[in-house]
């Protein structure tokens, strides 16, 4: 008796992918709702508060120095090798390649460019906002500090806010932003938050960032994710133009059909006349002349030079009373 094999988890995953060759209908673009606006305003206020606390050399700067003198890489030296690998999850190059590969496969499966365009817009916002803040405030890192207890601002540095932390929030958080279901969005949001915060603490452990750098980088990445719905119309317009350009390139140059909006008849263009040819009017009473017959290549002979069609010798019986044509009845008798 033959028994059927029980499908594995991998089989169920591929079966689900086969059932969803296009973009799911229930996936909607996030909008700038009232709840999101409140979160964006609170995150922006927190961002400004951290910057102000560092500028005035408050208790946050003293905490930065205490953590630096604690030297976590010496206190927990046994995890140093693991942290060196874990901090790569915040570097721009490796994380962008991994996330772009996944979103590119998803774009191909769902026949939409929105995942890749959303990633590109978020990375562009990250470079503009975080980069401007880094070089604008010019804070030096712990390894290059010049005076104990100072905030190390306006000295030509580029570590405030933490780029590793902000990049981790954006690149891993975009997966939660583009999730198909609310449950997946919740799980991916929690996972990206823990991953990005771990990346920031790894930089503090190694000694390349102050603790306030990490907190500000985490908030900076969160602001970008919260502001993405404002750029959804731009993403939609860019996707429409790219798909229209691809459709125009796929149409052959000699095609005479003019594509129009759906629901309208297709307009056919007449073929251009050949240069130097004039159409002669055909009389109504005369039949249309036929095209010349096709002749096989080779020498041709006239009818008189061809061999007789009938075989040699007649199959009909001889009749004595038959006379050749052209004789009169008088000669017959």
Order of strands, main sheet, comes to 1-2
Alpha-beta classification = mainly alpha
Inertia-based shape: globular
Order of helices and strands: HHHHHHHHHHHEEH
Give a short synopsis of this structure.
This protein has 333 residues and is mainly α.
Q: What does it look like?
A:
The chain has 12 helices and 2 strands, in the order αααααααααααββα. It has helices at 9-19, 34-55, 59-70, 72-75, 80-86, 92-110, 114-137, 163-177, 182-206, 211-227, 232-250, 329-332; strands at residues 257-258, 267-268. A hairpin with an 8-residue loop joins strand 1 (257-258) and strand 2. The chain starts with 8 loop residues before the first helix and ends with a helix.
Characteristics of this structure?
12 helices, globular, disordered C terminus, mainly alpha, 333 residues
Write the layout of secondary structure elements.
Layout: H1 9-19, H2 34-55, H3 59-70, H4 72-75, H5 80-86, H6 92-110, H7 114-137, H8 163-177, H9 182-206, H10 211-227, H11 232-250, E1 257-258, E2 267-268, H12 329-332
Antiparallel strand pairs: 1-2
Helix pairs in contact: 2-10, 5-9, 6-7, 6-8, 7-8, 7-10, 7-11, 8-9, 8-10, 9-10
